[in-house]
Amino acid sequence: MINIPKGTKDALPQDSHAFLALEKKAREVARVFNLNEIRTPTFEHTELFLRGVGDTTDIVGKEMYTFLDKGERSITLKPEGTAGVARAYIENGMDRNASLPVKMYYITPVFRYERPQSGRLREHHQFGVELYGSPEPQTDAEVVQIAKTLMDTVGIEETKLFINSIGCPECRKLYNEALRNFLADNIESMCKDCKERYVKNPLRILDCKEEHCKEINKGAPKITEYLCEECKNHFEGFKKALDEVGIEYTVNPNIVRGLDYYTRSVFEFVTEADKLTVCGGGRYDNLVSMLGGKPTPAVGFGMGLERLMMIAERAGADLGKPNAPKVYIANLSDEQSTLIRKVVYELRRQGVSAECDLMQRSLKAQMKYAGRIGAEYVVVIGEEEAKTGECELKEMATGDVKKIKIEKLIDELK
């Protein structure tokens, strides 16, 4: 017996409708906000994530699925969606040819070698949004609106929005120095990762999940106190834009997000009950230039669909049901099987979901099967029905039966 790898999960036919329902809702929200879909490869050159995501992040340091292909090139299964979108934006000349802002979304698998968490697997799927070209704080607020609208559409009300600003590289230099000074007396007692971050990127220490490190970080200076005037104005504009549309938020100075490309605004939607992050994002104005393109402001988010579905089901959201046929056409004998197959095929061609017997069942067993698969109607075509050209159309919910010409069956069901 070959078992499924740890941290992965099968979406079985009786359950996959929930994923389809979520994806459909996400695509509809994207349509309303005038976003177009972008699809990037499942794997990229490893250098893309080393340069874009950052070599001090847990994703690059611990979680990437990286391998050498047959040409001895280092390839990585994408651990997040934004770096690939930025690469596509540059490589395809979207900065030259597209009308700004460029508004995109994706639904993609992502791969992270980490301990499986509640609603977060080693292979999971993300709905992501990317807006390129606008530096305005109203754009940050619009991205938050997209995430909030999707959660409202799904029926999730148990989340809180936390926001912060991590400034630009210039004001972050001042903050990093203040943070190093604050941590200097305790750094030796902190975890190995934090000791490395202390040298390379002290801001990342605030994202540490170790309890001892979290306790030390509680008294850390707030980055919002070190923002330059421009970053401060941008953050105030972001808050004002959220206030204008009535989206409630809490400023949390410890939110830094887990990726190095973020600048200025960062945000998270977190469940109130168990503190699970449903959605995280922010601004990354330097990412395109870091990857070789011209400076381009950008903002976006990623939302894990498995976790979103888990929370939606917990909230009693309606995620639909598995597919069920409109009609089941039962067969009484082999003589009518050719006619039935023709009728079923034509129904399907006309957009009517139809089923017939593929298992040589008795009529009684066929009727039971039609009930189990949720058919709305059942038609029995036997020898007499084939001769007269009429059949009985039975509505399963009410038991009502009416006679109808077989040739009129398609129009009736449509």
Describe, in plain words, how this protein is organized in 3D.
The protein is an alpha+beta fold and 414 residues long. 38% of the residues lie in helices and 21% in strands. The protein folds into 2 domains: 16-168 and 228-314, 2-Layer Sandwich (BirA Bifunctional Protein, domain 2), CATH 3.30.930.10; 327-413, 3-Layer(aba) Sandwich (Rossmann fold), CATH 3.40.50.800. It has 16 helices and 16 strands. β3 (65-68) and β4 (74-77) form a beta hairpin. α1 (16-32) packs across α12 (305-314) and α6 (137-154) runs parallel beside α10 (229-245). The relative contact order is 0.12. The model has no long low-confidence stretch (mean pLDDT 92).
CATH architecture of the largest domain: 2-Layer Sandwich
Going across the biggest sheet, name each strand in turn: 1-5-6-11-10-9-7-8
- Tally the structural domains: 2
**What structural category arises from helix and sheet content?**
alpha+beta
Mean pLDDT: 92
Shape: elongated
